[in-house]
Amino acid sequence: MKIKKVEIQAFRAYDLMEDSVFDFSIKNNDIADFISIYAPNGFGKTSFYDAVEWGVTNNISRFLRREKENKLSAKAESKKSTLGKYIFRNKFSLKDTDTFVKLYTDSTEIENVFDHKKLRSTQRDTKFDSDATKKGTEYLLDVILSQDSIDSFLKEDDSFLRYTKFMDSFGDKEVDKKYRVIIDLIKINKSKISDCNKNLINLKKELKSDFDDEILTKINSAIKGFNKNNTKIPLISPSFTEKEDLEFSNALTERTKDIEFKITDLEKKQNLIESTFSNKSEFFDYSSNKEKIIKLESEIRELKNIDKLFGKKR
User: Fold this and answer.
1) Fewer C-beta within 10 Å: the chain N or C terminus?
2) Average pLDDT score over residue span 72-88
3) Structural domain boundaries in the chain
4) Residue 253 and residue 113: Cα distance in Å, rounded?
């Protein structure tokens, strides 16, 4: 449906019809495909959309969205003046001026007339009631996007509600179904992640309660004694992580290999000493190397004890 012309009288910001005719016909009496209405604030842009909507549906959706607030506001205005009862009708139109909106489309003519003369002195011209909407035109309340409707859509705090509004009016239903399936899967995954995190916390508590402090003290005591020989093996804590466990094992292995290498080297020297004494060609301090070997062998035993104790902890 394309709107060719709109005539408005005594409605909202508009008074006499001769000043309120919007003709959208172009050359050859064709109807324009696109119309843009531009004017400063307060010059009737919103009233024009209200008129078109009321002319077709007998209601204005932006008033229905804030029903309670509008009723209170209208009640307060009615107490101030008898003109406060007019919500749709122009308050300053003469009594004999009828209120109506006429729409001429490419297929039909639509007219909505309001008889303000039948109103009682305290009766408002609208009840802000969706039941007053003409049957069969309800969809237009959502289709017509007035400035107020656009603001309401953009300022909607609930992003899902905003998405729902958009999809209901313009969206691809098949895409929407897939989107909702994805949303449901995300919710399920979040729930599973939450359960896993709770289980992880409980498992950590159980691990902490099962830890033997006595074994930990023995291991750290052995490590401290070993580190007196300029060795840097880290102490163990109850919160030892898998990464720290690996670093600890690597440090033990590295130090063990280092000592084994030194022992091998000293044994070679010892063999050389023994050979030298037998040939009497050269002199080496045999007793000194022998003491180093004994000391290194003692360190290896300590490392193996530490590894054995740590193995119990794991």
Assistant:
1) C
2) 67
3) 3-166, 172-210, 213-313
4) 96
pLDDT band of 193, cuts 50, 70, 90: very high
Residue 295 and residue 300: Cα distance in Å, rounded?
Answer: 9
pLDDT in tens, 253-294: 888 888 888 888 888 888 887 776 665 444 455 666 777 788
State the burial class of residue 68 (Cβ atoms within 10 Å of its Cβ: 0-12, 13-18, 19+): exposed
- DSSP classification of residue 25: B
- 175 to each of 164, 170, 269, how far by Cα in Å? 12, 12, 81
Looking at residue 36, its amino acid is S
Q: How far apart are the first and last CA of the chain?
A: 78
Residue 35 buriedness (CB in 10 A; 0-12 / 13-18 / 19+) = exposed
Buried b (16+ CB within 10 A) or exposed e, 137-164: eeebbeebebebbeebeeeeeeeeeeee
One-letter identity of residue 18: E
Overall average pLDDT of the 232-240 stretch: 76
pLDDT of residue 282: 47
Residue 283 contacts residue 185 (beta carbons within 8 Å): no
Enter the tokens of residue 68: 């309670």
Q: Are 116 and 93 in contact (CB under 8 A)?
A: no
Question: What is the structure's pLDDT at 65?
Answer: 73
Question: For residue 304, which of 241, 217, 232, 226 has the smallest C-alpha distance?
Answer: 226
The answer to whether 210 and 198 are in contact (CB under 8 A) is no
Contacts of 10 (CB under 8 A, 6+ apart): 16, 89, 90, 93, 97, 98, 99, 100, 116
Region 174-188 average pLDDT? 88
